[in-house]
């Protein structure tokens, strides 16, 4: 019987410079798609996959994230006084069990691999998930849950994977495919942000991982890789050829790159259109905007 995956690391130490000036005082993970912060989507996805312990790797200026997951007694008592039960329910859905979230700081911005390594003592000797909240995935069955189910079958190290246009591959970790089994591929190599034209395939790593504790051991000895940073991709790649191996998992769902402005806007529109209370007005508005644009061409 395989160990259950119950812990997830959320690397949230990044400065979010692509969203300045907004991120001058607001962590980018608090930025909202419709009315829920990015981090809430990640937490909901993790919960659906059976995660019980949530480890946030933060940095200076991320206090708003801790407040977000705290009780809000004054707000709650005001809402209760006014009998706003629906809003109280909304708040309730953000409550976390006491002790379920741990926050620790990455003291130096040395890369994603280093951020994950910072959580090593809280992970111990168990498989664990890593979720990058910038990657928001809309899916009927949440992406991490799909991965946990696949992991229960095959074990090993698993990364979410998605085909991307070749000319975009250099923004991602890219898989060198050993065997393509459809939803799953076995991997014989992984390259972080390959130079244009040097990508081994167009199958890119997306920010969901299920990893063995060996990867943390590999990070103990890591040196800087692509971009001068300690890369998670390199530490995972070291497991290729070992007993557990590395798999790419083609998830079912639509991924939005909410670390970019274009991706964030697309996610906002898409999540708005998925909301019963907003979709009719939004669709009408979008149709109008497109028609006006076309007429002006
Ligand atoms: C990180 C990973 C990269 C992965 C990407 C997915 O890169 O290092 O392997 O493909 O997330 O979003 P970042 O986008 O943080 O530079």
Characterize the structure shown:
The structure is a single chain. This protein is an alpha/beta fold and 297 residues long. It has one domain (7-259): Spore Coat Polysaccharide Biosynthesis Protein SpsA, Chain A, CATH 3.90.550.10. It has helices spanning 38-48, 63-68, 73-81, 85-92, 112-117, 120-123, 143-154, 214-220, 232-237, 261-273, 279-296; strands at 7-11, 32-33, 36-37, 53-58, 101-105, 128-131, 135-138, 157-163, 173-180, 184-192, 203-211, 246-250, 254-257. It starts with 6 loop residues before the first strand and ends with a helix. The model has no long low-confidence stretch (mean pLDDT 94). 1-O-phosphono-alpha-D-glucopyranose binds at residues 112, 132, 135, 172-173, 192, 204-207, 232-233, 259.
Short précis:
34% of the residues lie in helices and 24% in strands. The chain has helices spanning 38-48, 63-68, 73-81, 85-92, 112-117, 120-123, 143-154, 214-220, 232-237, 261-273, 279-296; strands spanning 7-11, 32-33, 36-37, 53-58, 101-105, 128-131, 135-138, 157-163, 173-180, 184-192, 203-211, 246-250, 254-257.
């Amino acid at each position: 019987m395989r160990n259950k995956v119950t812990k997830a690391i959320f690397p949230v130490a990044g400065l979010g410079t692509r969203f300045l000036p907004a991120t001058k005082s607001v962590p980018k993970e608090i930025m909202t798609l419709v009315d829920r912060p990015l981090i809430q989507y990640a937490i909901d996805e993790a919960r659906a996959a059976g995660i019980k312990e949530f480890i946030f790797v933060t940095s200076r200026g991320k206090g708003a994230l801790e407040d977000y997951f705290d009780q809000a007694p004054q707000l709650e008592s005001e809402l209760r006084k006014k009998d706003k039960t629906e809003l109280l329910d909304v708040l309730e859905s953000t409550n976390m069990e006491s002790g379920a979230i741990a926050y620790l700081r990455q003291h130096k911005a040395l890369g994603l691999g280093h951020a994950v390594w910072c959580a090593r003592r809280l992970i111990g000797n168990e498989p664990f998930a890593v979720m990058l909240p910038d990657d928001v995935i809309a899916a009927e069955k949440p992406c991490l849950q799909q991965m946990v189910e696949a992991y229960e079958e095959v074990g090993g190290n698993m990364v979410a994977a998605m085909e991307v246009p070749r000319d975009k591959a250099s923004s991602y970790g890219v898989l060198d495919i050993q065997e393509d089994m459809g939803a799953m591929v076995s991997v014989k190599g992984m390259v972080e942000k390959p130079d244009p034209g040097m990508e081994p395939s167009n199958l890119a790593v997306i920010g969901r991982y299920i990893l063995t504790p060996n990867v943390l051991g590999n990070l103990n000895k890591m040196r800087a890789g692509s971009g001068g940073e300690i890369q998670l991709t390199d530490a995972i790649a070291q497991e290729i050829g070992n007993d557990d191996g590395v798999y790419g998992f083609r998830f079912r769902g639509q991924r939005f790159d909410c670390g970019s402005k274009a991706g964030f806007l697309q996610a906002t529109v898409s999540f708005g259109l998925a909301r019963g209370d907003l979709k009719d007005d939004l669709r009408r508005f979008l149709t109008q905007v497109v028609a006006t644009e076309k007429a002006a061409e």
